[in-house]
Specification:
Number of helices: 11
Strand content: 15-25%
Radius of gyration: 24 Å
Distance between the termini: 52 Å
Strand order of the largest sheet: 1-2-3-4-6-5-7-8
Number of domains: 3
Order of helices and strands: HEEEHEEEHEEHHHHHEEEHEEHH
Number of strands: 13
Largest sheet: 8 strands, mixed
CATH architecture of the largest domain: 3-Layer(aba) Sandwich
Oligomer: single chain
CATH topology of the largest domain: Trna Endonuclease, Chain: A, domain 1
Shape: elongated
CATH class of the largest domain: Alpha Beta
């Protein structure tokens, strides 16, 4: 099989999403961000990274992607073709890369276009099939088979059959034998959008080693009540934050772009950030040192002095609404 390059896969994924009714915000094909597409259909959000060779997706990539996914309440996913251990990612197979599900383009297409989920996953110890435990137990009882009877027919231990009904999943060949003996389809689709994303220790770059300007902005936002902050390295926006009070979620969320003058393509980043904000129902803001810098025509822009004059998060939101209305009317 000829391997697909990133642009080919991105084009295919974008087409599938459009055809199936998703709205999307997409980064440029040359982006080195930790994600490439955010897609929404009604209240369902997916954040996708296309990485043909999945080993190129690093732990730092995963940490940033998982934190952005959590902030946006989105399901993270990697679409890939191959890796060091896999010459080809098979159709219907789910891998985990630092806790994030990885599927092939074919598997993604079947899932999104036809609602056919994968049933096989790769974990420590080999390949396994997700099964319906209640259906397995019910079929065994209806066939009047004891644990020992079924174990003998399948070629495993009695204990193993018990564990299949209570905790573990069988390898593909055993699952096929169980379905054949019981004459019942026990394989169950993997709920790939509901996989619990493992938590990892926050790397120091997310809160340390910021530029002087970003550090100042971070302090101001914290004083306004945006205590929960994450500063990115591999995203079009520089930070995301939520206003909190005694661990109570207020719903005041912002995506932040900082224009440090030296950065290239800041207007392009601001535009992409606004697209993401609109799609995910967040507020995007751009922060500049002074009004002599170029002002984005798509994102409400604030100077550091303007932020310093605010007393609380609601002041920022109130001014954001006015500036956003002005942009819409212009």
């Amino acid at each position: 099989m000829s391997q697909k390059n990133k642009i080919t896969i991105l084009t295919e994924v974008e087409r599938i999403l459009h055809v199936t009714g998703y709205s999307i915000a997409q980064l440029s094909s040359g982006s080195k961000a930790c994600f490439d597409i955010i897609a929404r259909k009604r209240e369902h959000l997916i954040i996708i990274k296309v990485e043909p060779y999945i080993d190129n997706f690093s732990r730092d990539n995963s940490f940033e992607l998982k934190n952005i996914a959590t902030f946006l309440n989105a399901s993270p996913m990697i679409i890939g073709e191959r890796g060091r251990r896999f010459s080809e990612i098979d159709d219907g197979l789910v891998l985990l890369r630092y806790g994030i599900p990885v599927v092939s383009t074919e598997t993604f297409t079947k899932l999104i276009s036809h609602g056919i989920p994968p049933i096989v996953y790769c974990s420590k110890g080999g390949y396994f099939v997700q099964i319906n435990r209640k259906m397995l137990r019910q079929a065994r009882i209806e066939k009047n088979l004891s644990y020992a009877d079924l174990a003998h027919l399948i070629g495993v231990s009695r204990r193993t059959i018990y564990e299949y009904e209570h905790s573990i999943n069988p390898p593909p060949l055993t699952a096929a034998l169980l379905e054949e003996v019981l004459d019942t389809p026990i394989a169950q689709g993997i709920k790939i959008f509901n996989i619990d994303i493992e938590k990892e220790e926050r790397p120091s770059y997310s809160i340390e080693n910021l530029s002087t300007l970003k550090e100042e902005i971070s302090d101001i936002l914290e004083e306004l009540g945006f205590i929960s902050q994450f500063w990115t390295r591999q995203s079009p926006f520089d930070a995301f934050s939520e206003q909190k009070n005694l661990d109570i979620h207020s719903g005041l969320n912002i995506l932040v772009c900082v224009d440090e003058s030296q950065q290239k393509k800041v207007m392009e980043r601001a535009s992409i950030t606004q697209n993401i904000a609109s799609l995910t129902k967040r507020r995007a803001i751009m922060i500049v040192e002074d009004l002599n810098q170029d002002i984005s025509q798509t994102v409400p822009t604030f100077t550091v002095d303007e932020l310093n004059q605010m007393k609380k998060a609601f002041d920022l939101v109130k001014n954001w609404v006015k500036k956003y209305s002005d942009i819409k009317e212009s």
